[in-house]
């Protein structure tokens, strides 16, 4: 019996990691392309700076759509189960990415090109909005009590794994053809590859069983008609503080993964492939260190590790752009590799922290709302705000102040969250809906 349970949990870990990796692969392809390609392919009539800002704005649209996806998938995830909602979310992301791969550019269909690009970005955002919290829950709710952080870390590993996969495919594609061919049509290949990868992900994900927590909620007749309404009853103060706790990780990650590529190539004249390769290497460290941090959290408690990681993030975020601005290859590599290690500390724990904020029968709805709002306010706005600051001031000092300030707010919120009383073990459950 114990061996069967262990095998089942390993299958869940693999399924959540694989599915999350493919979802983030699709999402990050768009981020890389928006930093390097979309300003010319879809906004050629704008200046380079304005085109980049427009491309990042379409990137941010995906984050605006994520809360919508979180609300829809969260509702049905708490009503009909986690498994099928995750299958649908993966299909949505794959369809959106594949269609971007065949979307004509501005030179072919004019203004319809950026309009359709935005529409497909919305599809991606809705899909990821359902995936993010759901993958965390299906892993955490299958976990043994003494390994909750570790299991919740598996879908979090999908974030850097997706970035590594996206950048690797991007690098290989760009390296095997001329710059003109890559800019003209080669960038489409990574998006078209998404269709095949999603089929693999679906096969793996369909083999996963429903979570014990949801099965128990069904058995106890604890399913409610409006799960989000009950999720909000945990209290406005707790919700706001938890939201603020999450923002820094998302904002820093997208400055590092997306804005750095655009800034490094257009402002500092750094080689595009060098930057993509360095970000990819940093993401490998991000991926590899998550099991270490989650193991430490299970062993010693997540509070101290999360607060320590938040403090280090403030310091490194403030130093990041001064290090990048040196233009020295060794310093740039150090800045990015260090960011990869540091981001992982808080990022790998936030799924478990958010999930434990809510009772199991409304956990999907509550977690989705917080995670997607944090992604919008943090990661969705960070490249746009940073580009606007850079354009208006001509330097990155303001960007450093902005990101260090965001990290400080998250650190203070984390201190407050960990001082709150934990959610009662037996939360009040609303009457079941027939």
TrEMBL record:
Gene3D superfamilies, alphabetized: MFS general substrate transporter like domains (1.20.1250.20)
One Pfam family in the UniProt entry: MFS_1
Entry keyword set: Cell membrane, Membrane, Transmembrane, Transmembrane helix, Transport
Residue ranges occupied by any Major facilitator superfamily (MFS) profile domain in the UniProt entry: 12-422
Record InterPro entries: MFS (IPR011701), MFS_dom (IPR020846), MFS_trans_sf (IPR036259), Sugar_transporter_CS (IPR005829)
Main location: membrane
Localization terms from the record: Cell membrane
Record SUPFAM superfamilies: MFS general substrate transporter
Residue stretches spanning the membrane: 12-38, 50-73, 85-103, 151-173, 185-206, 239-262, 274-293, 305-324, 330-349, 369-391, 397-418
Topological relation to the membrane, as annotated: Multi-pass membrane protein
Domain of life per record: Bacteria
Protein's UniProt name: MHS family MFS transporter
Protein's organism: Kibdelosporangium philippinense
